[in-house]
Design brief:
11-stranded mixed sheet; single chain; alpha/beta; binds NADP nicotinamide-adenine-dinucleotide phosphate
Length: 415
């Protein structure tokens, strides 16, 4: 058991365990949380009330969470002198499932990005972003309800691995020279260089997690999104490794588009269809034929762009949750930033953290609590008593504060 200097272990509650690839969740788990910077504390106050109300309504006294405040970001720097203290990483590892608000990236500080560091240190290799429409939310589409996807974005490799060199630096010149002389590469003088590592191991474990999710949740298809027509040995390999891991680990549990076109036994109407699309075409497809897509697995950069573009189709990031998940360790988080200009105004939309909590409860197998929160949120939006960002897109809506929106969600759970 780790010891904590700044965080306080709750007096009751147990750690979630992970044995033989399966989470074992006690009735009273300890869940660490980071409030986050800027608007984070406003959002957390509303969110935790919603979580506790849903747990109480779903399970009475049988299940509850002991929340454990841990430090990261600006508050951490003020309290502990560090942006991301080791004890916070220890808590995320010991208790396995955590939730965090947005963190500002220190400008000129010694750490590149707290979020990126967290993902790398804890090996949270999948960034999972479900995107669905909530009736009544302003959006740019004619039929926004047709989009209902879950994006699994590889979180540790690709051009985001941070291996790059400044134009004119000694390293960039040396590596460019090696590539020119040894491998005949044509690289303009004075170029900046970046490396795009993508491994069989990293690609396969991501696709495997997406396949498991698709099968466990009765989803209709899994699409591998890649740019393999141009980047054949990285993105093209991602596609090939994706099909390979489906064939080796999920034999008989899926079919491909090629199987379907051949007809016969392989074209079962109920099979999970594994297909692939080139990334640029996929952006069009999600706009024009969104209901043909379901679970998506994709490398880091494609996934980053695609997640935000998809969220825009259903009304933006205010209601877009996320989870960073590894093997037996997961950190759920808001997908938006700290929106510092609204800090302490009790104004901002807590929906992203609240829906990240829904993902967290689903991950723990506490589906009933998640369903209640979604029901509450749907009812709150229907009542048109919403935070400013939703109100400005909804004719006839009444703007309410962050905390009042939390109350509306809690009220909506009983409806
Ligand atoms: P941001 O904090 O996401 O805010 C940009 C704008 O998005 C806000 O001004 C607001 O737009 C809207 N918005 C964001 N969250 C909202 C919410 N919950 N409800 C309603 N509207 C919301 O982006 P930023 O200003 O570029 O970044 C600020 C800081 O956050 C930076 O330090 C950045 O590094 C960090 N960041 C952290 C994360 C993370 O922790 N996961 C992610 C992204 C950025 P309007 O003013 O138009 O209403």
């Amino acid at each position: 058991m780790a010891s904590y200097r700044f965080a306080k272990r709750p007096s009751s509650g147990d750690a979630i365990a992970f044995e033989k690839g399966v989470l074992s969740v006690p009735g009273n788990p300890v869940i660490p949380f980071v409030e986050g910077d800027g608007t984070g504390p406003d959002i957390w106050r509303a969110s935790v009330r919603v979580f506790d109300a849903a747990l109480k309504k779903a399970y009475g006294s049988e299940r509850k969470v002991s929340w454990m405040k841990v430090y990261a970001g600006e508050e951490s720097h003020a309290v502990t002198g560090e942006w991301l203290p080791q004890e916070t990483l220890d808590a995320f590892t010991e208790f396995r499932v955590s939730i965090k608000g947005p963190l500002s990236t220190p400008v000129g500080g010694g750490i590149r990005s707290l979020n990126v560091t967290l993902r790398q240190v804890l090996d949270l290799y999948a960034c999972i972003r479900p995107v669905r429409y909530f009736e009544g939310v302003g959006n740019p589409m004619k039929e926004p309800e047709k989009l209902d996807v879950v994006i699994f974005r590889e979180n540790t490799e690709d051009v985001y691995a941070g291996i790059e060199w400044k134009a004119g630096s000694r390293e960039a010149e040396e590596i460019a020279d090696l590539l020119r002389t040894k491998y005949g590469a044509e690289i303009r003088a004075g170029s900046a260089l970046g490396i795009k590592p993508m491994s069989e191991f990293g690609s396969k474990r991501l696709v495997k997690m997406a396949m498991q999710y698709a099968l466990a949740n009765g989803r209709k298809s899994l699409t591998l999104v890649h740019k393999g027509n141009i980047m054949k040995y990285t993105e093209g390999a991602f596609r090939d490794w994706g099909y390979e891991v489906a064939a080796s680990d999920f034999k008989g549990q899926f079919c491909t588009e090629a199987d379907l076109s051949k007809g016969g036994n392989a074209s079962r109407a109920d099979c999970l269809v594994v297909k692939d699309r080139i990334a640029d075409a996929m952006f069009q497809q999600l706009l024009l034929r969104p209901d043909e897509y379901d679970v998506i697995a994709t490398p880091n950069l494609n996934g980053d762009y695609l997640s935000d573009a998809a969220a825009a189709q259903v009304g933006g990031l205010g209601l877009a949750p996320g989870g960073n998940v590894g093997d037996g360790v997961a950190v759920f988080e808001a997908t938006h930033g700290t929106a510092p200009k609204y800090a302490n105004l009790d104004k901002i939309n807590p929906g992203s953290v609240i829906l990240s909590g829904v993902m967290m409860f689903e991950y723990m197998g506490w589906k009933e609590a998640g369903e209640l929160i979604v029901r509450g949120l749907e009812a709150a939006i229907k009542s048109k008593r919403v935070t400013y960002d939703l109100a400005r897109q909804m004719p006839g809506a009444t703007e309410v504060s962050t905390s009042a929106f939390g109350d509306e969600i809690i009220k909506g759970m009983g409806a």
